[in-house]
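Inverse folding, one chain.
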């Protein structure tokens, strides 16, 4: 999407809920509550009920749209800069001015708060509470009641975890394989990700970005699919903890031969012992032994109850047969 940075923002044609802006800002005046006129820039706007009236651009840019004098409806608050013609461009224009209208304060005035972007890029536009909490009965030192979370929206949880893997510096530091991972612009908006996820077989499964496209680093509707935990754990690349040798090979201290290991996806997950294949004189021999055993396991997994999607099954059957020795990664 083309960036809006440095470009003149156009108000005409902007839609915010039931309100449509008809004209560009023009010099005019509005009356204060005490009846005195106030010079300001206004736009002519139209409500879906047919009512037309002048509205200060201050309300549009701050996303606080007063109630329509005719129908009494208030449009949903949204950043006008990021919803021109229904297009979300928050990641490109960099204007972090998404706002929401909170409840009234003690004086009965509506309070406008900035929405905190998730991992600095994600926009939670859910029209419902994503968490539920209950009181524990404990009173804190500040006098407030302690609460604990008893439920969290599963769609939001998956979305938040995806953004953490894509944009959290601390997570990437401890998980180097996610260093270059990002999410597509569409999925920076929670409602778009939720809409896609609803149509997937997601319950009890894991979001995977690279089984359909080996080496893929972008989370998007075209590249991602939900797979079982067995499949996700089997294809996971532990490059950050593997060490300097080719995948599947290891040279213990004070030993002259390489040892080859390969994880058995059907073994009890509580068994932390590494499945031993054999010992070899060279690193490449140990790696090739791993490749052969990994391919055998992949074929067994592809034809097991843990794989229900035909596309995933085909990818598992060929994934390790095409594995080449170039820094121990799929090429």
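Residues assigned per position:
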């Amino acid at each position: 999407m083309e960036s809006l940075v440095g470009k003149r923002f156009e108000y005409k044609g902007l839609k915010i809920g039931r309100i449509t802006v008809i004209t560009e800002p023009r010099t005019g005046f509005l009356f204060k509550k005490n009846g005195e006129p106030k010079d300001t820039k206004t736009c002519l706007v139209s409500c879906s009920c047919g009512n037309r009236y002048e509205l200060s651009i201050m309300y549009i840019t701050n996303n606080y749209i007063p109630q329509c004098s005719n129908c009494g409806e208030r449009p949903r608050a949204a950043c006008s800069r990021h919803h021109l013609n229904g297009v979300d461009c928050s990641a490109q224009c960099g204007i972090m001015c998404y706002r929401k209208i909170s409840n009234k304060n003690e004086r009965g005035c509506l309070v406008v708060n900035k929405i905190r972007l998730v991992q600095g890029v994600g926009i939670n536009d859910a029209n419902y509470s994503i968490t539920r909490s209950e009181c524990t009965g404990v009173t804190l030192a500040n006098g407030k009641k302690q609460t604990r979370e008893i439920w969290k929206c599963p769609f939001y949880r998956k979305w938040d975890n995806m953004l953490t893997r894509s944009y959290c510096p601390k997570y990437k530091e401890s998980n180097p394989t996610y260093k270059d991972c990002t999410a597509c612009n569409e999925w920076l908006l929670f409602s778009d990700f939720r809409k896609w996820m609803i149509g997937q077989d997601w319950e009890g499964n894991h979001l995977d970005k690279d089984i359909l496209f080996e080496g893929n680093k972008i989370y998007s509707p075209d590249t991602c699919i939900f797979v079982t935990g067995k499949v996700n754990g089997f294809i996971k690349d532990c490059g950050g903890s593997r060490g300097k040798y080719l995948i599947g090979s290891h040279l213990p201290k004070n030993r002259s031969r390489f040892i080859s290991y390969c994880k058995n996806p059907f073994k009890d997950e509580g068994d932390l012992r590494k499945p031993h294949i054999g010992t070899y004189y060279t690193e490449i021999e140990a790696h090739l032994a791993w490749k052969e055993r990994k391919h055998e396991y992949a074929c067994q997994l592809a034809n097991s109850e843990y794989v229900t999607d035909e596309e995933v099954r085909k990818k598992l059957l060929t994934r390790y047969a095409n594995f080449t020795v170039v820094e121990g990664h799929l090429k």
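Residues 228-331 form one domain. The chain has a mean pLDDT of 77.
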